[in-house]
Specification:
There is one protein chain. A five-stranded antiparallel beta sheet has the order 1-2-3-5-4. The protein has three domains: about 70 residues, no CATH class; about 60 residues, no CATH class; about 130 residues, Histidine kinase-like ATPase, C-terminal domain (Heat Shock Protein 90). The chain has twelve helices and five strands.
């Protein structure tokens, strides 16, 4: 598994498995064609160096941007930074490495291996020492609102938060659900349309906390527009003449400290960070 594939996916925008299968098949075929390897070997060193600098630089910038923009936990951002320097230290032998055999030495000199192992250990430590995150799953429709509110209440009580924080979390969950699964207020309709089977989408909510801050992650069906972009447009306008579709976005903006929205085909991932109301500890 090459971790650079994540950055390649972000840069190219291509995440289809079919494309990966075709690329893998091409690489397997090329491995049995010595002439292709000879052509690649004939590329001048400065040209290949410039190409690698451009590619690795783009991957590094994209990876750093993904961590900084999409990761809300300061602890995990610190883990990413520490693991990067651990990997670089082993990769470039910034200190004397012990001799533990040919296989062990090869593993220690690999920045991907050492950095990956360090990240696994640190993340496991954070998962074991921090309160466990809670999970909620249901059908993506407004009928799931009572069960979702009960889940949020249980989450707040386990964190020993007061009623004000609990009400804010409930409001955020409700507005996010209404954004993902808006009310269908259309009246009438053809009987043929009613008989058509609906595509039942699943809603998954992951709730975690960092001190007094709550992080809610909603995973559900696509809504067609990026929520983060819509909220940014609302923030850029002082006069809020919100139409009915934008009402949930305006309310969500007032309740949440930050909202990030990622879209992958028909799946939306909305991460909301909620802080206690002013005056609460």
């Amino acid at each position: 598994i090459n971790p650079a594939m994540v950055s390649f996916t972000q840069i190219t925008g291509v995440a289809a498995r079919r494309v990966g299968y075709f690329i893998g098949a091409i690489l397997i075929i090329v491995a049995f064609l010595p002439k292709v390897s000879a052509v690649l070997s004939s590329i001048p060193g400065p040209v290949m160096t410039g190409y690698l600098i451009m590619v690795t630089g783009a991957l590094f910038v994209e990876g750093a941007r993904t961590v900084i923009q999409n990761e809300q936990s300061q602890e995990k951002i610190a883990v990413a930074g520490v693991c990067f320097w651990i990997a670089a230290s082993f990769q470039f032998e910034l200190f004397h490495l012990p001799d533990i055999g040919a296989v062990g030495n090869a593993l220690l000199k690999s920045g991907i291996t050492t950095g990956g192992l360090a990240a696994i250990v640190m993340i496991l430590y954070l998962e074991l020492t921090n309160p466990r995150r809670m999970r909620f799953q249901s059908q993506l429709n407004v009928d799931a609102l009572p069960d979702l509110n009960e889940f949020i209440t249980r989450f707040a009580r386990r964190r020993n938060w007061d009623s004000a924080m609990q009400e804010r979390l409930t409001a955020v969950a409700e507005e996010t659900l209404l954004t993902l699964a808006p009310l269908d207020l259309s009246l009438g309709g053809d009987d043929e349309d009613e008989e058509k089977p609906k595509d039942e989408r699943q809603l998954v909510v992951l709730a975690s906390s960092e001190g007094t801050t709550a992080d809610l992650e909603f995973i559900g069906g696509g809504a067609g527009a990026n929520l983060e972009d819509q909220i940014r447009q609302i923030q850029e306008h002082d006069s809020l003449t919100a139409v009915e579709e934008e009402l949930s976005l305006v309310l969500l903006r007032s309740y949440a400290e930050s909202v990030t929205h990622q879209q992958y085909h028909d799946t939306d991932i909305i991460a909301v960070r909620v802080v206690p109301p002013e005056g609460d500890s």
